[in-house]
Amino acid sequence: MTPVSRSGKAPGAAWVAVLAAIGIGTGAPGGARAQMDSIRAEVEQREIDYQVAKDDYRAAYSRRSQLEREWSQLNNDFDIARESQSDTEKSEMLARLQELSVQVERADGRAESTKDIFVEAGTALVSALESHLEMLASLIAAAPDTARSRELGDLYRDRSSRVGEVETEVGERIELVLDPLPDIVVGPRDTPRQIRSKARFLDDKAEQQERVIADLDAEIERLANRLQRDRVTSDFFTDPNRVGDTRLPVTSGTSGADAVGGATPWSGESLQEKIDLLVEFRGKVEERRDQLLQKAEQFRALAGGGTAP
Predict the structure, then answer these.
(1) DSSP string covering 153-176, please?
(2) Quick one: DSSP state of residue 256?
(3) What is the DSSP secondary structure assignment for residue 303, as one 8-state letter?
(4) pLDDT tens by residue, 131-166
(5) Per residue in 178-197, is it b (16+ CB within 10 Å) or e — as a string?
């Protein structure tokens, strides 16, 4: 299975043509050619893995939906048949319902496991594409003339768009849903030990928010680096002398995507808008963490201080 770009050419053929255009032929000495070929091969293999995982997930999801419809229809038929069918017929229908229930449960597990593999394959593909984009950005900066930088730019834009498509199909890396503040209070009969236990529970919840903040920081940095690279690379397309000029209408990488698991909360948003959403959500998570820590301290004060059991 060979993945094909929207231009109708296999990525490998397009890559070889671009390398030839900038003077890096198949017999070029040194490690540059080998490194670029390695990155290209990695992208192509990840594309194959991703398509296989995507097809498996779709098939598993479709099978689960089919079984759920069959169960629902048979359940309705069983309710209608309660008064008109014989005991033998009703027993047969009930046995079939139980059999379908088991099949639905298994299909649900299969759908969830294939979804996990699909998401992992998408993440691996995006990582490989990002490496490809980094290499292309370096080649564009080193291109000897505008014509060749534009040819590289076409490939860069194609790969960048592919990143957006995959990310939309896979779904957001971080779910932008704020955990509720635990409904936990100190009761009139709580002992100091019980109160301190509740405080530790709140500390654990605060630590969970710290991990979410760390994940958000990593994702914000990843998107910010991509945005900066896109801006600098775009400068080379329009005017190779304008290095560092960041004036660029930020484009979305999610247009035309076939969202397998549904659109993300930011489908159609620009990179800058995605970053802004993450930064805003980060502030909410920080506030929730501080609320948890403050409440834990209040509980410890009521317990007489300290952290002993």
Answers:
(1) HHHHHHHHHHHHHHHHHH--SS--
(2) T
(3) T
(4) 999 988 888 888 877 788 888 888 888 888 899 899
(5) eeeeeeeeeeeebeeeebbe
